[in-house]
Amino acid sequence: MARSTSSATARTASRTARGRMPISATGNKRDGERGFTLVELLAVLAIMGIAAAAVLFAMPSQSTEARSAAARFASAAEAARDSAILASAPVAIRVDRTGYRFERWEGGAWTPLSRKPLQPVAWPEGVTTRIDPAGERIRFDATGLANPVSVLLSAGGVTARVTIDAGGEVTLVA
């Protein structure tokens, strides 16, 4: 029968045979053990993700450009209609590929307007327009009635439409 070595008095190797227990003091690592901890890497990834999201949301996309340009144009058309009613004088919007501007019928001729909110506006870069039916002016008479028109704004494959009916009602379909 073999002797058991699991007792409290069992013989073990000498202290010199066992060697020293490896202890790593702060800043005293060997070359192969240098690097970043998992917590440090996750913190850096979280910071990079937050920064990337902030940049992404700060940059306007072309799809939002078309929609926001259409919303601004619809608001401007409503302001032109209201101005025509308040002044009891026809107001027109001239739309072209660069932007739109406002005019008022005074003294037998169209006079450009340049006061807020009827200031000339340039389309944002990348926005294209199409007017149906094509014509010189979108006119609002002194009672707010208009010549019916549809203005289509496109950017980045996204389109938005502003329609003005004969009653002067402005509708945005984005």
From TrEMBL:
Pfam families, alphabetized: GspH, N_methyl
A GO cellular component entry from the record: plasma membrane
Keywords in alphabetical order: Cell inner membrane, Cell membrane, Membrane, Methylation, Transmembrane, Transmembrane helix
GO process terms (BP): protein secretion by the type II secretion system
Subcellular localization, as worded in the UniProt entry: Cell inner membrane
Biased composition (Low complexity): 1-16
Gene3D superfamilies the record matches: minor pseudopilin epsh domain
Residue span(s) of domain General secretion pathway GspH: 69-168
Taxonomy, superkingdom: Bacteria
Entry's transmembrane regions: 38-59
Membrane topology according to the record: Single-pass membrane protein
Chief location bin: membrane
Family, per entry: Belongs to the GSP H family.
Protein name: Type II secretion system protein H
